[in-house]
Structure prediction request, 283 residues.
Amino acid sequence: MPRTLTALAVLAALTLLVAACEEDPAVDEPEEPEEAEEAEEPAADELDLLEEGQLTVGSDLAFAPFEFIEDDEPAGFDIDLMDAIADELGVDTEYVDADFDGILTQLAAGEFDVVISALTITEERQETVDFSDPYFEATQALVTLEGSDIASEDDLEGLSIGAQAGTTGLDYAEEAYGEDNEIVEFPGYPEAFADLEGEGIDVVIADLPAADEEVGDSETLVIADEVDTGEEYGIAVDPTKPELLEAVDAALAAVIADGTYAEIYQEWFPELEVPEAFAGDDA
Prediction:
C-alpha cells in the first residue's frame, strides 16, 4: 500500500477515536465528587405533636406584655415569638390558658407540647421539663404606692410583700426577705397589684416588663427599685419529645439570626435596646 494511503488511513482512525471520546465524557472527564448532604431538621410530621400540624402551647394569659387576651385572642411578646417559631417549624399554634402555678405539671403530663409564659429557667424546673435555649433576660422590680417610703430593697424590713404563686419572684421574696417580712402569695399578678392599690400589702415583686406595664396603666403605682437576679426565660418542652426540643432551638436561632426576634422585641419594648445576644446577624 502506498505511504499516502497508509497515512490517510491512520488519520481517519485517529479522527474517529477523538470523536468517540468527545461523545463519551466519561472517557476524559472525571466525575465530580458528590457534596456531603446537610443534616436536615426534623419535618413537622416527625415532631410527635399532640395534633398533627399544630403546636399546642400552654400559657398563663394574664401577664402583659408577655401574654394576655386582647379582642378575645392571645397577644403579647411571647405569643408573637412563639408564632414566629411555629412558622419556622411549618405548623400552626393553639394556645391553652392555664394557671401558672401548675402549668409545668400539665406539660409533663402531656397536656401541651410546649409552654411559653415568661418562664425563668431554673434547675428545679429542669427536673420536671426540658427548656429551650434562653430567649429573654429578665429583671425583677419592686412596685409600691406613689408617696411610699420604699425606695430600695433596704427599706423592706417588717413589710408585707406580694408575689405570684409559682414564680421566681415569690422564690426570691421568700429567700431574700422571708425572715423579716410577711410574704403574701397570689394566684396571679392582677390580684397582687389590686391588693397593693387597696393598701392590703406594702409592695409587689414582679418581673420588670410586667411591672412596667402595670405601673403605666395606674395612677397610684410606681416602681421603687429594680433587682437584677440574672434570670433568663426559656420555652418549656414536653420532656418526652427531644426531637421537638431540638427543632424549637433551631427555629428560635433562625428567628434571632434573621432579625425577626429584634422586630418583635422592639414592638413590645420600644423603650429598651435589644440585648446583644438576641440582636441577630445584621446587628
Remarks:
- The chain has two domains: 48-135+234-278, 138-230.
